[in-house]
Design goal:
This is Efflux RND transporter periplasmic adaptor subunit. InterPro entries: Beta-barrel_RND_2, RND_pump_MFP, UPF0194_transport. It is found in: Periplasm. Pfam families: Beta-barrel_RND_2. The chain has about 400 residues and is α+β, with helices and mostly antiparallel strands. Among the domains are: about 45-50 and about 240-320, Elongation Factor Tu (Ef-tu), domain 3; about 55-85 and about 210-240, OB fold (Dihydrolipoamide Acetyltransferase, E2P), CATH 2.40.50; about 90-205. Helices cover about 35% and strands about 30% of the residues. The chain contains four helices and 20 strands. The chain has helices at about 1-25, 90-145, 150-180, 185-210; strands at about 30-35, 35-50, 55-60, 65, 75, 80-85, 210, 215-220, 230, 235-240, 245-250, 265-270, 275-285, 295-300, 315-330, 345-350, 350-355, 360-365, 365-370, 380. The strands form five sheets. The protein has a six-stranded antiparallel barrel with strand order 2-11-14-13-12-15. It has a four-stranded antiparallel beta sheet with strand order 3-10-8-5, with no helix packed on it. Helix 2 runs antiparallel to helix 3 and helix 2 (about 90-145) runs antiparallel to helix 4. The longest helix is centred in the N-terminal third of the chain and has 59 residues, at about 90-145. The radius of gyration is 50 Å and the shape is rod-shaped. The two termini are about 55 Å apart.
Length: about 400
């Protein structure tokens, strides 16, 4: 039994010597040289893909849906047909309105081509009759002075001249109503304008029976089917315009002081985690969600990848700070890193010796050393104890 215990003890001592003694005497643990490098700090959060605005599509008419030629998720061009209503009644109304326009136009032509020339001719005839009756009146007056005719004949000639004069005045007035600015022309033109307005309104109603896409985009919602009776003001479809894409992300409020508009970010959709795309912070909510303890941040995606879809879940790394060409070491090499007196193990005369340092920016598992080290100093990696022997730097 003693011999067995002795063999076991020797074996344990052998393992301990293999693991520990090289750290004290053999230089088996190489030191690592500190070199300048770029250090970036990021904050991470998740959110969703959203368009900056969405377009609600509906009908301005009451009608029955005849056809819906698009499906949810489909990309449509501006002006593409989204919904068609039964337009038979509207087409009949348009034909009636166009008939009224044609009738009003015919009335204007009749006034200009028939009524006006006839009125002008009637005026000329009345003027000729007036000249004849006035000549007869003058002859009767002469004969009356000579005693050849009596007073009755003279009075008859005078009445005929007065009647002809009145007929000239009436004919002139009738002609004036048919001329430009006259009452008959004004009535005809007003009737024509009203008929044309009614036709335009009927044509517009007919056009509204076909609902088209106001902008190009992706149809993210469809709530209408053929046979449905639609009403004005009801949203039937929701269109997400193409172009600008935003990421709406909820960041922990503890990071609010680190975030600023214009900061760059890298994002990835959970469905395509290995494909990252660039984004930029464009909006930080002025308020904090008290229930979730978060702040809403919007990021603009200048060149969204083709696979990006509305409401996709995304992960976002926002670059909140950057230091170029600074001394940085792995954070796990720093002892008491969260206290006011952090330190590292520096290679001095071949041994790990404590060295106080001043820390700065942290990011990506590394931390900036602002004071206490210089480029080329060699440090002990994590797991090495103070006083252990360190081999020289073993590579770049």
């Amino acid at each position: 039994m003693r011999r067995a215990y002795l063999s076991a003890a020797v074996a344990v001592l052998g393992v301990v010597a293999y693991l520990v003694l090289p750290r004290w005497w053999g230089g088996a643990v190489p030191a690592v040289a500190v070199t300048p490098q770029d250090l970036v700090r990021t904050v991470v959060a998740t959110g969703r893909v959203e368009a900056p605005h969405r377009v609600d599509v509906g009908s301005t008419l009451v009608g029955t849906v005849a056809r819906v030629p698009v499906a949810e998720g489909q990309t449509v061009a501006a002006g593409a047909v989204l919904i068609e209503l039964d337009d038979r009644e509207l087409r009949a109304s348009l034909r009636a309105a166009e008939g009224a326009v044609a009738q009003a136009q015919a009335r204007v032509r009749q006034l200009q081509e028939v009524q006006r020339p006839v009125a002008a001719q009637a005026l000329r005839q009345a003027q000729a009759t007036l000249e004849t009756t006035r000549a007869q009146q003058r002859r009767q007056e002469e004969l009356f002075r000579q005693g050849y005719v009596g007073q009755a004949a003279l009075d008859e000639a005078r009445r005929a001249a007065e009647l002809a004069d009145a007929q000239v005045a009436a004919a002139r007035q009738q002609l004036d109503t048919t001329l430009a600015g006259g009452s008959d022309e004004a009535v005809a033109l007003t009737t024509l304008a009203q008929a044309q307005a009614n036709a335009e309104a009927a044509r517009a109603r007919l056009q509204h029976a076909t609902v088209t896409a106001p902008v190009a985009g992706v149809l993210i919602s469809r709530d209408v089917e053929p046979g449905d009776v639609v009403q004005p003001g009801k949203t039937l479809m929701v269109l997400s315009p193409t172009g600008e894409t935003q990421l709406v992300v909820q960041f922990d409020e503890k990071n609010l002081g680190l975030l600023a508009a214009g900061q760059r970010a890298l994002a990835s959709a959970d469905a395509f985690a290995d494909q990252r795309f660039a984004a930029e912070v464009v909006y930080i909510s002025p308020g904090v969600d008290a229930q979730r303890g978060s702040v809403e941040v919007k990021l603009q995606v200048a060149q969204p990848p083709a696979y990006l879809r509305q409401n996709m879940t995304v992960s976002v790394d926002v670059e909140v700070a950057r230091r170029n060409r600074v001394l940085a070491v792995p954070l796990d090499w720093v002892h008491d890193a969260d206290t006011s007196q952090p330190w590292v193990l520096k290679r001095v005369d071949g041994r790990a010796q404590r060295q106080a340092v001043t820390l700065g920016l942290r990011g990506g598992g590394r931390v900036e050393v602002m004071d206490g080290l210089k480029a080329g100093d060699e440090l002990a990696p994590s797991g090495v104890r103070e006083g252990a022997r360190l081999g020289p730097h073993a590579g770049p």
